[in-house]
Specification:
The chain is α/β, with parallel strands linked by helices and 334 residues long. It has 11 helices and 14 strands. It is elongated and about 80 Å long.
């Protein structure tokens, strides 16, 4: 990850953004967020939180009811054409003609962005090589695997060298190998200076790729920060010590209490303490137990995860989000 450029204006700026649908349902309710130029911003939220509606507003597919949003310095309503010229978009529902070849689609995309024949052909070949589809460029897209299709989606979003790239759950349904390949490409694009706005249902993906993460619930941002900052806010790491058989658990608890606050543990052969120093707590704990004459079988430091953060601020896990109709799925504007 290349990280943000601190002195540059934000790549995405949202203030008081709202979107209401029929029946007064607010999919987005006073949303404020900023994405810095040159960063990967992970955007998470349970079903119905307003995530999809927000993205559709930012890529000019939907107009806000109130508030302001600017992308690449341009207003998404009054300067929508300028926004479109500066963004790349790979949405899950993107329609691609399965009878066309990957090479034909990329050339057509280039022509739509005003490229002449030779320029469009050259750019198509460059992108096919970049996403590893050169050998498959002459095949019909209907014959592509899911991973190949997602890589082609990405290539099409990059034809005009956008300043800001919007990726909507880019690896959903992909096998681990295809997912890792797409992750590498996203990192490479970001290293080249592209700002990436990433929505994902995989917390591991956000942790692997995002410089910062924003979590939306009820149409508003409820948490934001680097993955490390968010996890630290939830709580300190926990050190778990599995004792050797027939060890004196009470004595072990006394010895470890001098290293860190004790944590309730369900296992009678295990003692746990808060580990404010993370892995640096391990040698301190081992030394304390050794001095007390207590044998240890194993030691493990467990840190809070983004799943813990998500559950703390939204009340659910990402996979167990609210079911049923949501504001994001509404179609008729108020």
């Amino acid at each position: 990850m290349s990280g943000p450029a601190s002195s540059s204006p934000p790549a995405v700026s949202v203030h008081g953004l709202e979107r209401a649908f029929k029946g007064g349902i607010k999919a987005v309710d006073g949303l404020d967020l900023e994405v810095r130029e040159g960063e990967v911003y992970g955007f998470l939220g349970p079903n119905g939180a307003g995530k999809t509606t927000t993205v559709r507003i930012l890529v000019t597919l939907l107009k806000p009811t109130a508030g302001e949003a600017r992308v690449a310095g341009f207003d998404v309503v009054s300067q929508a054409d300028a926004v479109r010229r500066n963004i790349g978009v790979a949405l899950q529902e993107a329609a691609i003609d399965p009878l066309m070849t990957g090479r034909e689609l990329l050339r057509m995309q280039g022509a739509l962005h005003g490229m002449k024949g030779a320029q469009a052909r050259s750019r198509a070949e460059e992108l096919l090589d970049r996403v590893g589809l050169t050998d498959a460029g002459g095949r019909r897209v209907g014959q592509y695997s899911g991973g190949m299709r997602r890589r082609l989606d990405l290539a099409m979003a990059l034809v005009h060298r956008p300043k800001v790239l919007f990726l909507d759950e880019p690896t959903t349904g992909l096998d681990p190998t295809s997912r890792s390949a797409l992750w590498r490409e996203v990192r490479s694009l970001n290293d080249d200076g592209t700002t990436v706005f990433l929505t994902t249902q995989y917390l591991e993906e956000a942790e692997q790729l995002a410089d910062r993460v924003g979590i939306i619930a009820g149409g508003s941002l409820v948490a934001e920060g680097t993955p490390a900052e968010l996890k630290a806010h939830v709580g300190e790491p926990t050190l778990h010590v599995d004792l050797a058989p027939e060890s004196d658990v009470a004595a072990a608890r006394v010895a470890l209490s001098a290293v860190g606050p004790l944590v309730d543990c369900q296992d009678d052969a295990r003692v746990a303490i808060r580990a404010a120093r993370g892995k640096a707590t391990v040698p301190l704990a081992i030394r304390a137990l050794d001095e007390a004459g207590i044998a240890v079988e194993s030691v493990e430091v467990e840190s809070p995860t983004l799943d813990d953060v998500f559950a703390a601020v939204t009340g659910s896990t990402l996979e167990g989000a609210t079911q049923g109709a949501s504001a994001d799925q509404a179609e008729v504007p108020a």
